[in-house]
Amino acid sequence: MWNFSKTWAALIVCLAALLATVWTAPVPRVLGQDKSKSAKKSVKGGKGKPLGNTKNLDVKADQIQASFTKEAEDLAGQYYDAGHLDKARSLLQAILAVNPEAPNVQKKLELVNEGLLNSNDIEVEINPSQTWKPSGAIVLGKGPLRIKSEGTYRFEAGASGISAAGFSDKDPAEDMVSGIACGALMGIIISDGKAGKPFLIGESLDFNPKESGVLLLRVNAPPGNKCSGKLKVAISGSVQGDRPPPREKE
């Protein structure tokens, strides 16, 4: 049996294809012909058939779009009220895919996204002297994600034998990461056993990851550093804990 996302994905594809066909079909134009020649020739469509008047069909297409928009928007509101923000978000995105000009839908989607960003809160402490640490969160790709850090720490490089080339950035697993400020909090997502590209978090970051996977965190400091202190990091949005909840005692 199809799940919710597959069902709506199929519906969106079919409806979008129908409307795109109706609204983007090219209109043939006959140029450089005199009236006598153009009068004798009729404009033909597929398989040599004359093109007919599509006014009534266009009206039906508009009705389909309006009906889908209204029903999907009403259902999204019901999901929102029931607390299923992810399903409400999928429906609102479906509306915008078919009808980008739908009034107030974008504002409703922003409201749902903000609700998602403040849900499923997971907290973890980061030791700035350590290498990459699992955050305890599994990121659900293409959904909104918020990462916020609090606190300060003492930065001490504690490294020796550094040449004029500076700190090495050859191995992102252990070395400094180029393109991200020294001392900044950063993240990386491990998807299907493969590490993505490290990204800057800093004090706060809202974004939509492209892939699902395990989120790891680290301060961008050189190997052997003597940093001390801790950062408290809160992760919320489209995430879930990487450990199953404890079983209730029978």
List the defining traits of the structure above.
alpha+beta, Jelly Rolls, elongated
General description of the model:
This protein is of the alpha+beta class and 250 residues long. The chain folds into 2 domains: 4-116, no CATH class; 122-241, Jelly Rolls (Sandwich). It is 32% helix and 22% strand. Strands 2, 5, 6, 7, 9 and 12 form a 6-stranded antiparallel sheet that branches. A hairpin with a 2-residue loop joins β5 (185-191) and β6. The chain is elongated.
Give the end-to-end Cα distance, rounded to a whole number of Å: 33 Å
Q: Please report the total strand number as a whole number.
A: 12
CATH architecture of the largest domain: Sandwich
Poorly predicted regions: 21-40
Named CATH topology of the largest domain? Jelly Rolls
Query: Roughly how many Å is the radius of gyration?
Result: 27 Å
The chain-level structural class is alpha+beta
- CATH class designation of the largest domain: Mainly Beta
What's the overall average pLDDT, rounded? 82
Q: Please describe the biggest sheet, giving its number of strands, its sense, and whether it closes into a barrel.
A: 6 strands, antiparallel
